[in-house]
Design goal:
Blueprint: H1 2-25, H2 43-53, H3 56-60, E1 78-81, E2 84-87, H4 104-113, H5 128-131, H6 136-146, H7 171-178, H8 193-203, H9 209-212, E3 230-231, E4 238-239, H10 253-262, H11 275-282, H12 287-297
Antiparallel strand pairs: 1-2, 3-4
Helix pairs in contact: 2-6, 4-6, 8-12, 10-11, 10-12
Length: about 300
C-alpha cells in the first residue's frame, strides 16, 4: 500500500506540473513595447493603403457593399470551417460595439499576436498569423486610418464553435506551432526591391497564404506547400495554385498585375467567389504594388496542382 500511495502521489504531482506547464505555454504573449511604433505625420493616408492591402473590408464590411459603404465595418460575415462557423466582428469606431475604445497597443496586439484587449486569444480565422509579419509602422498607420472611419452600431453575432475548439486557452499552444513573424520565402541577395515589396504584401498584409496554402489536420498552414492551392475555407471547391507550377504559371507578370486590378484573366474569364472582393481591395492599390505582387508570385517555388 505505501508503494501504491507513492505512485499515486507521484502521478498527481506530475499531472499538476504538466497542467502548470501547459497553462504557462498557452498564456497570451503581448508584443514587447519596442514592437509598437509611434504614429507619425501622414499616417492616415499611408494607413489607407494598408487597409486595402489587408483586405479588411472583405470580411468586415456588409456583403455586396460598394463604394464608400465598404468603409463601414459592422462585421457579421460568416466564415464556415471544419472547426465551426466564425463571425467577423464589428471593427468600426463605435465605442462599445466596435473598436472605437481601443488604444494603439490594443490594436497592435490584436493584429500581430491575436490577443484581445481583455487578454483572450482570438481564433485564427482572423489572419493574425500573416499580420505578424507586418512592420510596426504599418500597424500604426492602419490604426490611424481606422480611426477616421464611421462608427456603426450593432455588435456582430457570436461565433458558432463547439467543444473542444471553443477552449480559447488552447489556442496559445496552437500559436506556438504555427505563428512565425519571419518571411516564408527566403530571398537571395540578387532579389530586387520590387520582389521584396511583393513578398511583404503577399505574406504580410495581403495574407494570400491563408487561403491559397493547404492546411494540416489542426488548421495550421503547411509552409512547405506555400501558395499551392487548398480547399476553399468557405463553401465548396478549391482555391487555385498560384505558384509558377500552378493555375497561373503561364501568365506573365503584367497579366497577373492586370488581373489584380480588373479581375479579368488573360483568357477573358473573370474572377469569381471570394476573389471578387479581393480584387475590389487590390484595385485601390498603386500599379507599383500590384506589379510587385506579380513579380513575387513569379519567384516562389513551383508546386504542381
Amino acid at each position: 500500500m505505501p508503494r501504491m500511495r507513492t505512485v499515486i502521489i507521484g502521478a498527481a504531482v506530475l499531472a499538476a506540473l504538466a497542467a502548470t506547464g501547459l497553462w504557462f505555454l498557452s498564456a497570451p504573449r503581448p508584443l514587447p513595447s519596442e514592437r509598437i511604433a509611434a504614429q507619425t505625420d501622414g499616417a492616415e493616408e499611408r494607413g489607407e493603403r494598408i487597409f486595402w492591402a489587408g483586405g479588411c473590408a472583405s470580411c468586415h464590411a456588409r456583403p455586396d457593399a460598394e463604394g464608400t459603404a465598404r468603409l463601414e465595418l459592422p462585421g457579421g460575415v460568416e466564415l464556415a470551417s471544419p472547426f465551426g462557423t466564425f463571425v467577423a466582428p464589428n471593427i468600426s469606431t463605435h465605442a462599445s460595439d466596435g473598436i472605437g475604445g481601443w488604444s494603439l497597443v490594443d490594436f497592435a496586439n490584436a493584429m500581430q499576436r491575436g490577443i484581445s484587449p481583455g487578454g483572450r486569444h482570438y481564433f485564427p480565422a482572423f489572419p493574425y498569423t500573416s499580420y505578424a509579419r507586418m512592420e510596426p509602422s504599418d500597424i500604426a498607420d492602419l490604426y490611424a486610418f481606422m480611426q477616421t472611419l464611421p462608427p456603426v452600431e450593432g455588435a456582430a453575432p457570436p461565433h458558432q464553435v463547439g467543444f473542444p475548439f471553443n477552449i480559447r486557452r488552447g489556442l496559445g499552444l496552437w500559436k506556438l506551432l504555427y505563428t512565425r513573424d519571419e518571411p516564408v520565402i527566403a530571398l537571395d541577395g540578387s532579389a530586387s526591391e520590387q520582389v521584396a515589396l511583393g513578398r511583404y504584401l503577399v505574406e504580410g498584409p495581403g495574407h494570400c497564404g491563408e487561403c491559397h496554402t493547404p492546411r494540416d489536420m489542426f488548421g495550421g498552414t503547411q509552409y512547405g506547400a506555400w501558395l499551392s492551392g487548398a480547399a476553399a475555407p468557405v463553401g465548396e471547391g478549391t482555391i487555385p495554385n498560384i505558384t509558377p507550377g500552378g493555375d497561373v504559371g503561364g501568365w506573365s507578370e503584367s497579366e497577373i498585375a492586370d488581373y489584380l486590378e480588373s479581375g479579368f484573366t488573360p483568357e477573358f474569364d473573370s474572377a469569381g467567389g471570394e476573389m471578387v472582393s479581393v480584387i475590389k481591395n487590390l484595385a485601390n492599390l498603386s500599379s507599383e504594388d500590384r506589379e510587385a505582387i506579380a513579380a513575387y508570385l513569379k519567384t516562389v517555388p513551383a508546386h504542381s496542382n
